Each structure stands twice: as structure tokens, then as C-alpha cells.
Amino acid sequence: MTPISHPIEDILELARWAPSGDNTQPWRFEVLDERHLIVHAFDTRDHCVYDLDGHPSQIGLGALLETLTIAASAHGMRAECTRDLESPEANPQYMVELIPDGQLLPDSLRTHVKGRSVQRRPMRTKPLTQPQKEALQSAVGDVYHVRWFDGRMQRYQFAKLMFDNGKLRLTLPEAYPVHRSIIEWKSRFSEDRVPDQALGLDAMTLQLMRWVMANWQRVNFFNTYLAGHLVPRVEMDLLPGLFCAAHFAILAPKPPETIDDYVAAGRAVQRFWLTATGLGLQLQPEMTPLIFSRYVREGRVFSRLPSAVESATALGARLSRLMKGLPVEQAVFLGRIGNGTTATSRSLRLPIDRLMSER
Ligand SMILES: Cc1cc2nc3c(=O)[nH]c(=O)nc-3n(C[C@H](O)[C@H](O)[C@H](O)COP(=O)(O)O)c2cc1C
Predict the structure, then answer these.
(1) Which among 77, 79, 145, 244 is placed 20 to 30 Å from 176, CA to CA?
(2) For a pocket test of ligand 1, which of 16, 17, 20 has the largest count of ligand atoms closer than 8 A to its C-beta?
């Protein structure tokens, strides 16, 4: 006999497809009964230089809660998610109650949850249409504002910014262990990391990078004497930055400060990304310039290399100029978007039983 599947199982099955930085999936589920569960979240700030104050993880958590809410709507239920204020910020817990609601219509974004994925390769430069831009703006609601950086010159400026930002990332000693641990080599799909084939590199560069990244001495030698970061940056930053319809920033009404601000932003980001998928558009987040510029703004040292801090300072100033006076500190998400084919290599997710909390 086939076991009866309860809505809560279906809901979690779909919710787990939410995106998270480096596919860390920083959440575990504890099902209490058919209507209640606890999301045990965590962040990676203690070992990941990009997870500044856990904010990127919190954006991912927002995406998870939004996806869960979307998934619940397909079963005629509202999902009420409440943060346990006693839980530590680095390990927040959310009580989720599923409430049947006869008035609720299934959210149309649910059909795009599994198809949404990062595209790190070049896209088409065909501009977004006005209706597409309007649909994406309305996806994030009235509270957030989407700003577009399109046209040849702005795409070039952002591509160049990403290219220079790429040098900082690839030469940063503190980022090396992160890159090493999140790439699954020789893979097209990965359940708990990013498969190397999804990085946007050609096969030969990938092979060389795999060899070089085996230890920091090799990375440092290649970077210092052979400009080893050059080809990867052309393929991962410059070309994708040029070949897209637009770069974009999602701005909050005020600089986000609390975990609740970041979780709320993550919800909006997921609605934006799912709407883009529904419109047949591809997307790639470009979050690291925002993260480095925050380190600099707050005077926080993220590297033992003084030159890295100097580069981040210069990049932060350039990002501000490119954003034409818009407040960078209000930007919760930066990315590029465009028409193109769906990625043929992508991150998958941990199976649901591995996402179940043992608590
Ligand atoms: C908060 C956040 C930040 C991210 N930052 C980047 C980024 O800077 N560059 C990038 O290529 N992908 C970035 N990603 C995409 C994740 O790596 C991706 O969502 C994850 O590996 C799962 O893959 P999928 O979205 O294809 O399912 C980010 C995702 C989130 C949620």
C-alpha cells in the first residue's frame, strides 16, 4: 500500500527548492503535527567570509519561508511564520502554522519553484520589455524598488566592476576555503554544493582550476606569477556581465538592519526570481560587491591582506557611482537578468529526510 502523503510533506518537498547562498540550505525542518512545524535555521558567518553577519543566509531563509507559503497556498492553506524571539540570531527558529483558508487561491508562482535556477553563463542582450519590468517590480510589491542598469554602457560598467570584483574574490585568502568547500568537482548536479559545471567556465579552464585549487600555495603562485585569475574572471564575470539584458538592484525603503529586515527582503527576492522564471528570463545574483562594500562601510576588516581592503574600498566607491546616487546601503540584492537558455548544470537539494531535524 502506498503511504498517504500529507499536505505538509508536499509543502516541504516544494519549499526545499528555495535558493540559498552557495546552496548551503541553512535550514532543517521539525514537523510537530499536520499543521505545525519548526524551521531550525542557521547561518555560516563563522566560516564564510561572504556570509557577513549571516545576512545572505537570512535572505535565503526569507526565500524559503516565501516558497513554503506559496507551496501551502496550493493546498488552500495560509502559512503563518513567526520567529521565536528567544532563539539566537545565528540559529533562528520559526514556528510555522498552516491554517486552512477557503478564500485562498493557489499562488501562480508555485509552478516555477522547481524550474527557477541560476544561469551563470552569458545570456542574450535583448532588452527587457516594459511589461516585463513592470511585472518584476510588482513582484516585489510597493515596499521595494527595482532599479535597472541597462544599455550597452551600463552593462559594460557593471561587467568591468564584476571583473575587478572577481580579482578580489579569487585572490582573497579568506575566500579560498569557502570556494574549495562549496564546489563539487566533475559534476553537473550537486545536492549540497554548486557543481563545477554550473560555474560558467569552459572545460579546460575548469580542469586547470580544479588542479590549482587543490591548495592555497598553488592558487597563490598562479595568481601572482601567471595571472591565473584572468581567464576565470573573463568567463565568470566579464562576459556574463556584458551579455545580459540588464543588471539590477532591489532596494529596501531603508537600510536593512535586523534579521527580520533581511528575511522580508529574501521573500521579495524569491517572488522576483520566480516571476522572472515565469517570464522565461534567466537570472544570476551578483551579491559579493554588496557584501564587500558593507564591510568597508562599517570599517570591518575581512582580510589579513591590506591590499584586499583597499580594493574593496575602491570597488565600493565605484558601485556607488554606478548606482548614480542611489543608496547602496539600501540595496538588498544585486544581479543580472536576461533572455537565454536554462542552465544545463545546476544545484539540486538535499533529500527531504536529510533536511529533517533530529531535535
Ligand atoms: C542570498 C543569495 C546570494 C547568492 N549569491 C550569489 C552570487 O553572488 N553569485 C552567484 O552566482 N550565485 C549566487 N547565489 C545563487 C546560489 O548559489 C544558488 O541559488 C544555489 O546554489 C542554488 O542553486 P539554484 O538557484 O540553481 O537552485 C545566491 C543565492 C542567494 C539566495
Answers:
(1) 244
(2) 20
Closest CA to 155 of 240, 236, 251: 240
Q: Is 8-115's fold the same as 130-347's?
A: yes
Domain layout of the chain by residue ranges: 8-115, 130-347
**Does ligand 1 have an atom closer than 6 angstroms to the CB of 190?**
no
Where helices occur in the chain by DSSP H, the ranges are 7-15, 55-73, 130-139, 152-171, 176-182, 203-212, 216-226, 230-233, 239-242, 259-278, 288-297, 306-322
The pTM score is 0.97
User: pLDDT tens for residues 114-158?
Assistant: 999 999 999 999 999 999 999 999 999 999 999 999 999 999 999
**What class has domain 130-347?**
alpha beta
Strand bridging mode 189-190 / 346-347: parallel
